[in-house]
């Protein structure tokens, strides 16, 4: 008896190969991706490398996402397959097979699918794991050799994870058969043929969510807020997208149907009617395609931009190879500054490195979180943009010119120069209760702070004639304001020769030479390596997830085309019988397919560019401010994805037309 169930299961899989072959291929790829991600994440060699722990953490995040996506993917595609199989299962039931016998056949089917998918996925995962690891190492800048190895723990975890997935799918399928009667199973493939009703409340809710998501994306002004509210905006847009396809699209089509001049034309009549039913049956699928396409575009474009803009981010963060920052209790005298600068010069030359440029400057910071206590504009009309100054920097004229590279006019005694972000408008300024006349307002030397603004806060440089004027401001702050913190930093910057290892060795020597001092030696080379590790890891995940989501998108499109092909075949025959020519019917069907097929990618591209301001702010949190580069990455990603999408359309459409015109 067992052999009978097994033979029936094999026969069923063969007879439904057009459904199961893509399902198996995608299952194999999902298992391969899961194993490879787990094998790389748990690699002992990776954990022992410099920066390996950070890369492993990124891969762990990727492993979780791959697992979740594989789960959604398996359940979603199973629903497509089961919809076409229910009629077949209903025939079995009517011919005398009990539901428990059908369940046994489904157990064998699920077991075969599990063995083929997981076995094939592990085989390809083991074979291609080294190649993917080499690609990851290349992206993050690792140069270590990669031995061939098999992650046995990864194999066991993959077997267990997908065993649970296939078991849950089997339970779900058996429940579907158990709860349905044979007649319902026979007619399940034709369910849902009534004209959909207009759901105004859901449509209004969806439109409100869409507007809310776009409003967040377009109005947020700081990177911190962008990161904080990005998930909120994504959820709102996802809800709005589902409403767009399931409700708003139907409302638009019904409005076209009521327009008699438009509707009662041969091509429009059939296409509008067909699309109304199609939107009801496939709104969720179209919304899923749109959301997945948006995710692919967002992830790939941003991670490619992060990786391509590593040098821009590094240069924005650090101007010279070495930046030695001394944290002090107060303002240094000139002799003390010279002593520290000369000592750094000696430490560098002792390492046989030549200095091509060296400079130094002093920064004084005051922070306050109480509105109006630190800085006020005398003109009330202009006070709104500086309700709460997040950071006040006071520098002497000479140090400011060294820091910013700008030449400014000499500051007159008793006056100040204000370089602020946003721009300072008032001609007077009150600092810790004392009023100063603003001599001039040069452009703020933006080195990334614009992306990190908080709400109504601002950043500003108050430029004074000398360090005595700084001391006066410090006394005012200590006397007038309770909730204020201060910080003094002295920077010595230098560019040196040598390769990357020599530069890092020199930075270590400088750090050791100032042992005991409250200081940090920032190495541009080391910072670039850490950025490469991070951006390379994110790019690997972006491409990995992009491929995974693209696979799911392709599979949804394929099953959608197959499903619609069987439904449209009957309509095709009916339309030819009532007098429409084959050419007219074909034109009508082509119009429907193209409209429905390309609508998701059009909406996805709109979502992508709607999110552009928020994504740009989020990139600024990584010190990347190259808008032109981001736009190039965006347009390039859209162009490549559009080509792939068009190829998928042509390939899957062949299956559709083959069914319709059979």
Q: Please report which band the strand proportion falls in: under 5%, 5-15%, 15-25%, 25-35%, 35-45% or over 45%.
A: 5-15%
Annotation, overall tally of beta strands: 10
Number of helices: 20
Percent of residues in helices: 55-70%
Order of strands in the sheet with most strands: 3-6-7-5-8-4-2-9-1-10
The span between the termini is 38 Å
Shape: elongated
Structural class: alpha+beta
* Poorly predicted ranges: 369-373, 378-386, 449-456
- What's the main sheet like? 10 strands, mixed
Give the SSE string.
Answer: HHHHHHHHHHHHEHEEEHEEEEHEHEHHHH
Mean pLDDT: 78
Task: Work out the radius of gyration.
Answer: 32 Å
Summarize the structure.
This protein is α+β, with helices and mostly antiparallel strands and 662 residues long. The protein has helices at 2-15, 17-41, 44-48, 52-94, 99-140, 152-179, 182-187, 200-219, 223-258, 260-263, 266-308, 310-317, 334-350, 397-404, 467-480, 500-513, 524-577, 582-610, 612-620, 627-660; strands spanning 322-328, 355-368, 375-377, 391-396, 415-421, 428-431, 434-440, 459-464, 484-496, 519-523. The chain is elongated.
